[in-house]
Amino acid sequence: MSRLDELLNKNEAWAARIEAEDPTFFQRLSGIQTPKFLWIGCSDSRVPANQIVDMAPGEVFVHRNIANVVVHTDLNCLSVIQFAVDVLKVEHILVVGHYGCGGVLAALDGQRVGLADNWIRHVKDVARRHEVLLAEIDDHGLRHDRLCELNVLQQVANVCETTIVRDAWASGQSLHVYGWVYTLRDGRVHDLGLDIGSEQALAEQYAPALARIGADREDR
């Protein structure tokens, strides 16, 4: 039996179990999706979006990439945001990083990982932007944690600065953007304290959130 056979058998068992527990589950799921949440997270296999917030399939629209980066030239990410905002009419965008992120660590330490180095450069830009703050932290693990948080903060700002989100706000659409960092050690989410529902809110909340990160020295 190949590894894929094992996965197919697991899928069959899972589908049978779900149908036995909830006979109408797949019938409901096959209908039009109406999620209220867009999750922009890291591709890390240890960070499953639906499970972390205990939501069923169909309740969270998901985009994932290395180090949860939002780049204005990335048509993949922008297309997901546009579809979520304009078509699905999501009300909440969650930008979710995680402590212990390998992509963030590679950016912090200047590690070479291959083609992905070009992608991780975006996180290196975040590190350079906040090099004074990071240099004040002696412990390497804490410095890694802070860069994970700073990266999420920057990506939240990037989401808010897209024409997609700005146009939604201008039209009066209810849409809020948040920044979270997931903790692998205990499964808890650390909220960076952002709840941005307008251009003005971004200007008002960014600096205080950055100040909180700078003042936080607790190991996550």
Can you walk through the features of this model?
- There is one protein chain.
- The mean pLDDT is 95.
- This protein has a five-stranded mixed beta sheet.
- By secondary structure, the chain is an alpha/beta fold.
- 33% of the residues are buried.
- The N and C termini lie far apart (42 Å).
- It folds into two domains: 1-31, no CATH class; 33-215, Beta-carbonic Anhydrase, Chain A (3-Layer(aba) Sandwich).
- Helix 8 packs antiparallel against helix 10.
- 51% of the residues lie in helices and 13% in strands.
- Gyration radius (Cα, Å) is 19 Å
- What fraction of residues sit in β-strands? 5-15%
Q: Look at the structure and give the CATH class of the largest domain.
A: Alpha Beta
Note the total helix count. 10
Total strands: the figure is 5
Order of helices and strands: HHEHEHEHHHHHEEH
Can you summarize the main beta sheet?
5 strands, mixed
Judged by helices, strands and strand pairing, the structural class is: alpha/beta
